[in-house]
Each structure stands twice: as C-alpha cells, then as structure tokens.
Write a structure and sequence with these properties.
7 helices, 5-stranded mixed beta barrel, alpha/beta, single chain, Rossmann fold, binds hypoxanthine, 24% strand
C-alpha cells in the first residue's frame, strides 16, 4: 500500500479512537482566526502532537489541533494551526490534515489565511474571497504515484473554489454589510516575504494577493473530492506597495485586528452554506 495512504489510515484510526464525530465542514483556521474555536460547541479535541505521524507546526501562533463540534448546528472540524512547506515538511505531510478530514467524512473545506495585497486597491484588513489560485511557482502536492484510494491521477482544476459556495459567501457579506474583495491568490513557498519586483510580477500574472499556504491544500482537497471555498485576510500591502518593511508581527497584528469581523463572516458563511 502507498506509504502516504497507510499513514493517513493510521491517523484516521487514531482519531476514531476518542471520537466518532462526522464533520460536514472542515475549516482551516489561518492567522487571526485561531480564536474561532470559541464559536464552536466543542465535542472533542485532538492535538496534532498526539496523532502518530501528523506534522506539528513550528510557527508561533499556529499550535495545532483538530476541534470537533457544532457551529450554529453544523457539524464542523476546525483545523487550528497548519504546517507550512517552508518549515521543511514534505508536501504530503502539509496536505495530510486536508486528506484526513475527508476520510473523517467532511464534504466541504473552508480555507482561511493571511496574505499580502498584490492588487494596489487592497488595504490591510480587507477580506478577499478567493476565486482562483496560482500555484505554478510551487511543487504540486499530487506529484508522486497517484493515491488511487483518494482520487484520480489528473483532477480537473477549472473550478477549485466552488461557485455555489462563493455565491453563498458573497450573499452573507452583502447581508452583513462586510466589505468583501475578490480575486486570485498566489501561493509562494516563503518564508521570506516577496521582493517588490516579485509583487509587481505577480500583479502582471493576474494575482491579487500572495501568501504561503492554501493553494496546495485546495489542490489536495479537490483531488480527494472536497468542495472548496476560501477567504483571505489581506494583512498588509505587498512589498513595494507601502513604504514600510514587512514583519511577521505586523501581519499578526493586522490579523488580530480583523479577527472579530473575520469570525462573523466565516461563521455566518458556514451557516449559510449548510442551510
Ligand atoms: N507575503 C506573503 N505572505 C503573507 C504576506 C505577504 O506580504 N502577508 C501575510 N502573509
């Protein structure tokens, strides 16, 4: 059996020890949404460190665990803390939690992240509905023998971000009076921020925001049959678009400031999607 699939089965069997909870929506909590768990009526938690083989994040503010519970009546699993490729993990480990939640029964993956604005109209604190992504500068997480148990060798990527889910999120933002940008997210490896020339290049290529996560998870999610949607919290203007140097602290601060509104947008969107 494929070693990556065997590892997934072990993780699933471990999680199935303490809980038989079947989530409908899996929510990846990016920077600033770590406190989202307070919205969830928690049924069970599974720290990543306890699950054999599951990668554990080294980034401050990303301590990892699965939180199973209900959000406004919807069975969800929150993935609090994600691992990034720049931490040195194999891509198969970076997408392992995505595949695992599918094996636990999730049908929808709701991705959130922090990003830098490439589109010069975007400001720190803006939310961007992700309508498509560019992952061409990044190794594909599906490289290697295809895991047939999960999906097809050549998955379609015409509509990674499900148009119906995007429509529901747009409707919620309009109803709640929350300004929602939309656009194309580009994932680079990080961990350094981009150069101004790179940000200009990404703009020319059609990107509106840039970050270090999400597209690989969305790709693995489509491969294994999850419906996907995502919202990015633009935490800063991309390098060269503002006069100040970028720091992780600035990103974290902007994410924390946007958190209450982000929580509302995401919470209401999940309720709307599952109505
Ligand atoms: N670049 C890449 N990733 C990011 C940024 C950025 O400017 N801001 C937050 N995450």
């Amino acid at each position: 059996m494929d070693a990556r699939y065997e590892k997934l089965l072990k993780c699933r069997d471990y999680v199935r020890g303490p809980t038989d909870f079947v989530p409908r929506v899996a929510l990846t909590l990016g920077s600033g949404l770590g406190g989202f768990a307070s919205e969830v009526d928690v049924a069970c938690e599974a720290p990543y460190a306890d699950i054999p083989g599951l990668p554990v994040s080294t980034v401050p503010g990303h301590a990892g665990k699965f939180i199973f519970g209900t959000l406004r009546g919807v069975p969800v699993v929150c993935m609090q803390g994600r691992v990034h490729y720049y931490e040195g993990y194999e891509l198969s480990d970076v997408v392992l939690p995505t595949r695992l939640v599918r094996m636990l029964g999730a049908e929808i993956l709701f991705l959130t992240n922090a990003s830098g604005g490439v589109n010069p109209d975007f400001d720190a604190g803006d939310f961007m509905l992700i309508t498509d992504h560019i992952m061409s500068f990044f190794p594909n997480p599906l490289i290697g023998p295809n895991i047939e148990e999960l999906g097809t060798r050549f998955p379609d990527m015409s509509h990674v971000y499900d148009p119906d889910l995007c429509g529901a999120i747009r409707a919620v933002a309009a109803r709640e009076g929350i300004k929602l940008r939309e656009g194309v997210y580009c994932q680079l490896t990080g961990p350094c921020f981009e150069t101004p020339a790179e940000v200009r290049m990404l703009g020319i290529l059609g990107a509106d925001a840039v970050g270090m996560s999400t597209a690989v998870e969305a790709t693995a999610a489509r491969h294994c049959g999850l419906r996907v949607c995502g919202i990015s919290c633009v935490c800063n203007k991309g390098a060269g678009l503002s006069p100040t140097a970028l720091t992780h602290e600035e990103v974290q601060e902007a994410a924390d400031k946007a958190a209450p509104l982000f929580k509302r947008l995401v919470g209401e969107s999940i309720a709307e999607i599952c109505r």
